[in-house]
Design a protein that fits this description.
Two copies of one chain form a homodimer. By secondary structure, the first copy, chain A, is α+β, with helices and mostly antiparallel strands. Chain A contains seven helices and twelve strands. In chain A, 35% of the residues lie in helices and 24% in strands. The interface between A and B is large, with 42 and 42 residues. Chain A binds a DNA duplex through helix 6.
Chain lengths: 231, 231
DNA sequence: CGTAGTCTTGAGTATCCTCAACGAGGGTGG
DNA sequence: CCACCCTCGTTGAGGATACTCAAGACTACG
């Protein structure tokens, strides 16, 4: 259940990390990284466990989430290649992180060694700051999405967000990779409402489905500003 | 309208910064800080302006917010004494920050100088990391609050959040300092709904009002687990 | 080919938003 | 000192939206 494929990295660059295209690689920091591979649903770091590592997604998708008292799950961050997580002032993780896609690969930086490295190498410290800034940007974006009043707007801005994050080149092609349930828990909606919003957007000509989780954006203006419907 | 009371800080500690009780002071960094004072509603840093400074709230309250195309405002962070803001990878601020309370005081760190200081002094780098970690923690908390399905739960968890943030000692006394409109824009609700939720919580015996914006928590269990109402 | 997980669609109910009116304070100026 | 105005806060009524419960279709995989 919990067998993780741990592979320590040589000081020389590892091709797994070098293979990450869109992410700005944390070059110096990678000398202390270990790469691990997870299968779908596997826990990468558990809630309430000690903060001993910082992480960076190399491939696949992961979700940072928590389960409320009423059994509802809230996803607090959707982690794509290049995204870092595991930062906290507290001694224990406030959230669990789980692999969403099968074969999700994560670089794992021992916190103490990373901090020490940052103390001696200013470049590392800057790299770490950049990583955290990005995490803030993602969270702020999520707050904006959650702040949308209607389900249609939430789903629409989520799609635009995913489009912006997926590939810089073909920005209109989205490979969601996550289930409707995950989207629902990210957007704080029920999965039925997510499904309805997506079919609604399809009939409005905003999106076109290649498969259940792959779609193309046809008309961005519909996704962008749902308030125009009132006009 | 825009006259800011700028006061450069001497290398020796400034009493304004030393006076901050609950915040862990960024000691070394304060040597390059300037303290500014703002009145209610005044803009501390504008949206789309270049990122030239990092900031820390010394006294008062500020809100980080944006205005959507439809005219709605979304508050992305509520900044209390000790909170830092202004971090971004982008060159321009994605959000505006405005003073909520009159006389809100902010320490202002020139970004370039702060970065340079961080490069030469590892303690500064750590201080900065801590500041950003705290910002992440606040944002994650906000996502959790926004993820609550009902208005009653959102307002309830918001009150608990504010209680936890206000004073470590008397955790049951809350001085909101912000208007119902601000709460509404923070929680992505209408101000009417916020008002209704508060009176509802009052009649349920969860809170008691000393004045419009000052209240005491009487029964925490009502605030944190609204799902019990179903039982 | 069956099974489990995922996705969609439907019907009814609860919740929230909008529009509206009114009350309460806090300034300001006469 | 009082009247006035303005912002803020509360409460009500009606309509729109999302949730819950439910059932059925599709997909992947053993």
């Amino acid at each position: 259940m919990n067998q993780k494929t741990a592979a320590p990295i040589m000081p020389s660059r590892d091709q797994a990390i070098g293979a990450v295209g869109r992410a700005q690689p944390a070059k110096v920091l990678d000398t202390v990284a270990a790469v691990r591979r997870y299968h779908r649903g596997q826990e990468i770091c558990g809630q309430q466990t000690p903060v001993e590592h910082w992480y960076r997604v190399l491939a696949g998708v992961a979700r940072k989430c928590t389960v409320r008292a009423d059994g509802r799950r809230q996803i607090v961050d959707l982690l794509l290649p290049g995204d870092c997580f595991g930062f906290a002032t507290q001694s224990r993780h406030a959230f669990a992180v789980e692999a969403v896609a099968d074969g999700t690969t994560v670089a794992c930086y021992p916190r103490q060694r990373a901090e020490n490295l940052a103390d001696t190498d200013a470049r590392v410290a800057r790299e770490i700051r950049e990583m955290i800034f990005d995490a803030i940007t993602r969270l702020q974006r999520q707050v904006l999405i959650l702040g949308r009043p209607t389900a249609l707007e939430r789903v629409g801005s989520f799609l635009l967000y995913m489009a912006a994050r997926s590939a810089p080149a073909s920005v209109d092609r989205i490979d969601l990779q996550v289930s409707r349930y995950d989207i629902a828990d990210y957007l704080a909606l029920s999965s039925e409402t997510v499904s309805r919003a997506l079919t609604d957007l399809k009939f409005r000509g905003a999106i076109r489905f290649a498969s259940t989780r792959q779609l193309n954006i046809v008309d961005r203006s519909v996704l962008d500003d749902e308030d125009e419907t009132a006009a």
